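Appendix B. Worked example

We walk through a single record from start to finish. Start with the input: the chain for cytochrome-c oxidase, Dyadobacter endophyticus, length 714.
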Amino acid sequence: MSNVPHPTLASVELDEFQYDNRIVRDFAIATILFGLIGMLVGLLAAMQLVFPNLNFDLPFLTFSRIRPLHTNAVIFAFVGNGFFTGLYYSVPRVLRTPIWSPVLSRFHFWAWQAIILGAAISLPMGFTTSKEYAELEWPFDIAIAVVWVSALVNIIMTTINRRVEHIYAAVWFYIASFVTVAMLHVVNSIELPISFMKSYSVYAGVQDALVQWWYGHNAVAFFLTTPYLGLMYYFLPKAANRPIYSYRLSIVHFWALIFLYIWAGPHHLLYTALPEWAQTLGTVFSVMLIAPSWGGMMNGLMTLRGAWDKVREDVVLKFMVVAITAYGMATFEGPMLSLKNVNAIAHYTDWIVAHVHVGALGWNGFLTFGILYWLFPRLYNRPLYSTKAANFHFWIGTLGIIFYTIPMYWAGWVQSSMWKEFTQEGLLKYPNFLETVTALKPLYFLRGVGGSLYLVGFVVMIYNLWMTAIKGKFVATETAKAMPLNAIWHPEKSEYWHRRLMERKPLALTIFSLIAVAIGGMIEMIPTFLVESNVPTIASVKPYTPLELQGRDIYVREGCYVCHTQMIRPFRSEIERFGEYSKSGEFVYDHPHQWGSKRTGPDLHRIGGKYPDSWHYNHMEDPTSMSPGSIMPRYGWLLEDDLDTTTTKAKIEAMQTLGVPYEKGYEHQANADLVKQEKAIQERLKQSGIKTAANKEIIALIAYMQRLGTDIKN
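Next comes the structure step. The output line below is what the pipeline stores for this chain.
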């Protein structure tokens, strides 16, 4: 051992500093407010699948527009603000230093809330990129990147200016989350703007799907999982008054998790037109993910060894234990769903909805509730207003999760079984897809009941925390003292390698985290982009006509991808039901892809030519007129609103920039061709007894629908 003496409180002058609780309080309030809004929107969307008229014939209240609003509100507004609440409380305390820049902290808070408000306005208005969990248009993408990087800089600088020698595990997860989400967001959001609120993804078809689910899966990983693991590593030991179970396990958990997670995105695209090798990589790494995921779960649960008696009495620990258990369940189910034989049953069904909500309601929701119940008495310097109310919240919330997920698991099995069942004669037993939809309405209603129970518990929490706040006195700042970093004793080089190489060096930790998460994406994407055999071209596949392109944008605006896929998998049941399975070369001009991830309605990839134009017109005016019992809402405004053709030239130019082979100068005659095709559809509708102007949006949508899947011979 070194002869250098350990400095003592008597021999070193302590630095005095303050923790700022105002930023913590503000993010906590935003968490509660936007959590309530996000859950209310989710409940409305759930009940619309039982009672479609709950959209009140208003476009901005239609399921396909508010479902993205619900997911964005819950992920980025509720969970995001919950993460930032815990972050700004825990980071200064584990690093024994105030946040480096209060100005950046305030900027982070107000800019993030402004982005959320922008999303709440723009998504119901139909401004969307159609990329799941990344639907916001390009001005918001730029704003998100700026805000996110500013927060990353603030955290790294705080870590550099710490007054402890080693960086605690919670901070590793925070830094890795910020670094990875920045990378994912920037790569996935590369798009070509054509107007203030309209852009096209630079990727197309197979490549766009791969990038999207590389982002989509890892948005779940690095926005909903790793940040909350960091919160678990701080708040669970605090609540239990126990050290974390295993320091070495936390190291293995951290590095294995961030390295393996990034590879798993392709398991969302099994049996699709994605190259087989990429699907296999996604499956292999998804299965391996169970080890580090459960390592984290066990590290959390084992922290409570010797303290399980506290769980019976402490409502905070109750929420945290159920949260960690839900995390373990979801991270077991994820690898299981990546197995191709299981995925063939579950994908596109409500099983996936159940799986996602075990994580969202159980892991993210309950951990957030536990943290809020732990924080508010400390922020307002008084005990929690009502422990009984908090316990009521715990039990009704748990009941809500059960009532939500069990009907959705059941619905998933019912859907898949009905889709795949044949008669003894070899015919589909349920050839009408609508039969598989109406059978689920009771289960959808039960899901709504579960969501209502969960929401009741949330409202009870709001009242409890509000009463705690008004009966207490807010502690705006807390004074603390610590030795300066340069006065802290440094041990010899025999120290454990991870402490020496990572836990003293925040920049090294940041760089190695970036390398760990970048490897998987590069290996999956670069060959898919550069090796032509991954996406064989098909000579008969031609660019969309100007009217079809306009109709496709209406399809995107209305969120049709939320309920309909455009990807027929090579299963006998799907080929019998929908037509020839989808080929990768058919999507080379799709910016962005429209493969979808959930079949509430039938797949549409071979819908072209299946029905006359009049069927589509009547179906959009009143779906039940063509499909009795349909749960699809009416889209009457498409029959009334004029098509904006002033954007046609810019759209064709954008497609040319992205490599779509329109002839040079075609952008100047595109509208003439558009009008010609409009009149042809108008005439066919007239022959069917439907009189309408040629310049209505419904005409463009019909043009696009009639084109789908017709480029190759079935």
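Two observations about the output. The mean pLDDT is 94. Strands lie at 15-20, 191-195, 198-201, 477-482.
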